[in-house]
Amino acid sequence: MKRERKAKIIATLGPSSSNEEIIEKLFLKGADVFRLNFSHGTIEDHRKNVENIRKLESKYNHASCILADLQGPKLRIGKFKKNKEQLKKGQKFTLDLSNELGDSKRVNFPHPEIYKVLTPNSNILINDGRLVLQVIEQYEKSLITEVINTNEISDNKGVNIPDTILPISSLTLKDKSDIAKALEMDVDWIAISFVQTAKDVEDLKKLISNRASIMAKIEKPSAVKNLKEILEVSDGIMIARGDLGVELPPEKVPVIQKEIIQNSRNDGKPVVVATQMLESMIYNYTPTRAEASDVANAIYDGADAVMLSGESAIGKYPEESVAMMNRIVESVEVDKNYNEKLINIQNDKNNFNTSTDAITSAAFNISQNAQAKAIVTFSVSGRTTLRMAKERAPVQVVGISPNIKTARKMQVCWGINSCHGEDAIDTKAMVSNACKIIKDKQIASPNDSIVITAGVPFGSGAGTNLLRIAKIIADKDLN
User: Fold this and answer.
1) Which of 309, 334, 359 is the last residue of a domain?
2) Rounded distance, CA 284 to CA 271, Å?
3) Do 235 and 92 share a structural domain?
4) pLDDT at position 393, please?
5) Range of the domain at 374
6) Integer Cα distance of 408 and 128 in angstroms
7) In this predicted model, what pLDDT tens digit does every residue of 278-321 receive, in sequence order?
8) 342 domain-assigned
9) Does 343 fall in a domain?
10) What is the pLDDT of residue 282?
């Protein structure tokens, strides 16, 4: 399966797309990665989706990538006697630990560990920020707040607390159970929600023991503040703009998005832009012009992937949403200014600290000078392939790994056509394997040149230290 497009598309599966036929259609329309949202659906739903995704792998000889997204510690208020109440600006309203049903003066907030850190002047956002409360008195079992804006409050609404690092783990008991199930399903990436510090990611690392890669979701101001440390311990980053846009002023989110993308690229970590990208397509056949521009801007900024959430999970047009996103991405990537911008930005930031850095940079330059049709990376762990993605080469990059899990997880990376293939035993086998895959995928034609990188000794997982140029020949039995 060959895609010309460099940036990747992640499609969330849900009631609108959880069957074998629809999943295949999403894949054919352009979905590179499938997201399982553990905030919704049953374990059996997710397990069946995994089975159907892996069937595509065999059918199309194309490594399939699966991202399991954990729910995380979503804070909620309790219920009301009348299901809802109207609160007025300036009135007092209490959050407490009482299990009695709420009224116009109070409601249960069952998170005692948080009370001690919510000091006066702390803001509490209810229902995606539609209602704002400010703490004026702090007690062990209650918080007296002032209502900042008139609005409705109702049963079980979500709570965001933007100004404070909360003394709670990003991994709930449900998350830990879901992690065990996701690892049994052999997912490739696990996304951790509501990360606050690098320790949250390190806690997840201890649980998964390198059985999957970790994607840290940046959706809290504290995560933005601690981005450098979070990047160091994460394998990838997701900019989850839903909660981030609640906890920060909306006008700040676009600038922060650009900063996170650039920082992730500088570190060579794949970065995903998510939430409300084509939101109107949940109900409409086409997106708004603003949504199309939003997707395009994420691609211009150099994101590795863009993600569909409700559009493909619960929307009326899951297949059309993937197709539309695919067309938007392709339209950006044919813009002559696009690759020049990405290359110039990367060249300004390149640091060559290892032989892998030097070889991948050289492969990029040689591919341009030799007018090569592709760059091929042999990598057991995926590190070389990941480093090649950082170069943002305008030619096809084919990542070959004898490790199927490596081949799968690399599908989220910009520009990587990831393949599961035999490891080379010597230089001759390396060239032969690379040329065969390139010919099978119809990436290059006879007399075209390709650039190949690998680590010697072969199969050792050594750093990349070998670079070759090879020429494709016509004989079907020869490479």
Assistant:
1) 334
2) 28
3) no
4) 86
5) 350-471
6) 35
7) 999 999 999 999 999 999 999 999 999 999 999 999 999 999 99
8) no
9) no
10) 97
pLDDT at 114: 93
Q: Could you tell me the CATH number of the domain that includes residue 153?
A: 2.40.33.10
Same-domain status, 79 and 67: no
pLDDT of res. 238: 98
Give the pLDDT confidence score for residue 460 in this predicted structure: 61
* Cα–Cα distance measured from residue 52 to residue 187, given in angstroms and rounded to the nearest whole number: 13
| Those residues with Cβ within 8 angstroms of residue 240's Cβ, 6 or more apart along the chain or in another chain | 193, 217, 218, 219, 274, 275
How far apart (Å, rounded) are the C-alpha atoms in residues 101 and 111?
Answer: 16
User: What is d(CA 296, CA 333) in angstroms, rounded to the nearest whole number?
Assistant: 9
Residue 186 lies in a domain: yes
Asked whether residue 212 falls in the same domain as residue 321, the answer is: yes
CATH number of the structural domain spanning residue 389: 3.40.1380.20
CATH number of the domain residue 12 falls in: 3.20.20.60
Q: Count Cβ neighbours within 10 Å for each residue of 131-159 and write b for 16 or more, e otherwise.
A: bbbebeebeeebbbbebbeeeebbeebeb
Contact predicate 73/161, CB 8 Å: no
State how many domains the chain has: 3
In this structure, are strands 396-401 and 374-378 parallel, antiparallel, or unpaired? parallel
Indicate if 55 and 81 belong to the same structural domain: no
Using one digit for the tens of pLDDT, what is the confidence trace for 359-410? 888 888 888 888 898 999 988 889 889 989 988 888 889 999 999 999 999 9
Instruction: Name the residue type at position 177.
Output: S
Distance CA 181, CA 386 (A): 27
Print burial letters for 285-321: b (CB count within 10 Å at least 16), e (below 16). Answer: eebeeebbebbbebbbbbbbbbbbbbbbbebebbbbb
Any idea which residue has 């005692």 for tokens?
112
CA–CA distance from 175 to each of 77, 109, 182 (Å)? 20, 21, 10
Residue type, 424: A
Q: What does the CA dihedral 272, 274, 280, 285 come to, rounded to 10 degrees?
A: 30
Same domain, 356 and 453: yes
Amino acid at 134: Q
pLDDT of residue 478: 47
Q: Name the strand (E) or helix (H) holding 40.
A: none
In this prediction, the residues of the chain whose per-residue pLDDT falls under 50 are: 477-479
422 falls within a domain: yes
Q: Does one domain contain both 61 and 193?
A: yes
Query: What pLDDT, on a 0 to 100 scale, did the predictor assign at position 353?
Result: 67
How would you class 457 by CB atoms within 10 Å of its CB: exposed for 0-12, middle for 13-18, buried for 19 or more?
Answer: exposed
